[in-house]
């Protein structure tokens, strides 16, 4: 089950307004041209609703500089990037216990729904210890948090097959997303090979 995170890349794109039809752009002088250029198109309005960087209240817990910062994480493959993020220490411990670090770091393109330390703390301590000691069960839980491809905010909503072989359904839009009872608290975080959405609850298969 060493396939925590392989997959294809899918990135978001910004819409750009262009003026087609020189007659319409120039027929009535400067006033007409100025009026046309300041009117937003439907595609511009849509692009304003799409997050272009990390979003969410939980991002305040990410360091502002160093390897654990947003900029620092973008330079490293996802397991290494997570190990530098103070919000994800239990997740890193779990990934290590499942022997999935190398698989994660060598994957081509993934989207990871990464539970925070507080998310793992919602699980009773005895149950969490038992999970961490059961490699097969732990691998199934961890791969349930991973899908193929790097899903941008305008692509992440919907039903996705996980690496555990089941599906998760992401609901929402803009900067508000949920997966069941879990909410994205810091989304659209880039690493060298993955898109990360930090969530406030562990997703159980």
From TrEMBL:
Keywords for this entry? Signal
What GO molecular function annotations does the UniProt record carry, in alphabetical order? cell adhesion molecule binding
Which is a Gene Ontology cellular component entry for this protein? extracellular matrix
Q: Does the keyword Signal apply?
A: yes
Start and end residues of each stretch annotated as Disordered: 26-74
Matching SMART domains, A to Z? FAS1
This protein's source sits in the domain of life called Bacteria
Which residues belong to any copy of the FAS1 domain? 75-203
Pfam families found in the cross-reference section: Fasciclin (PF02469)
Record-linked SUPFAM superfamilies? FAS1 domain
Q: Which residues form the signal peptide?
A: 1-23
The Gene Ontology biological process annotation of the record reads:
cell adhesion; extracellular matrix organization
**UniProt biased composition (Low complexity):** 26-45
| PROSITE patterns with a match to the protein in the record | FAS1, PROKAR_LIPOPROTEIN
This protein's name: Uncaracterized surface protein containing fasciclin (FAS1) repeats
Species the sequence originates in: Aeromicrobium choanae
């Amino acid at each position: 089950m060493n396939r925590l995170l392989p997959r294809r890349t899918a990135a978001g794109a910004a819409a750009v307004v262009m003026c087609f039809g020189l007659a319409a752009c120039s027929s009535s002088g400067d006033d007409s041209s100025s009026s046309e250029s300041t009117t937003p198109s439907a595609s511009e309005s849509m692009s304003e609703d799409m997050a272009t960087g990390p979003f969410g209240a939980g991002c305040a817990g990410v360091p502002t500089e160093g390897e654990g910062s947003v900029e620092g994480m973008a330079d490293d493959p996802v397991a290494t990037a997570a190990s530098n993020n103070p919000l994800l220490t239990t997740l890193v411990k779990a990934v290590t216990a499942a022997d999935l670090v190398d698989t994660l770091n060598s994957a081509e393109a993934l989207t990871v729904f990464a539970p925070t330390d507080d998310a793992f703390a919602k699980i009773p301590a005895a149950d969490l210890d038992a999970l961490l000691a059961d490699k097969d069960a732990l691998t199934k839980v961890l791969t349930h948090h991973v899908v193929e491809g790097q899903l941008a905010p305008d692509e992440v909503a919907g039903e996705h097959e996980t690496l555990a072989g089941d599906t998760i359904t992401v609901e929402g839009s803009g900067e508000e997303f949920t997966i069941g009872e879990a909410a994205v608290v810091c989304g659209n975080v880039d690493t060298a090979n993955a898109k990360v959405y930090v969530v406030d609850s562990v997703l159980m298969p």
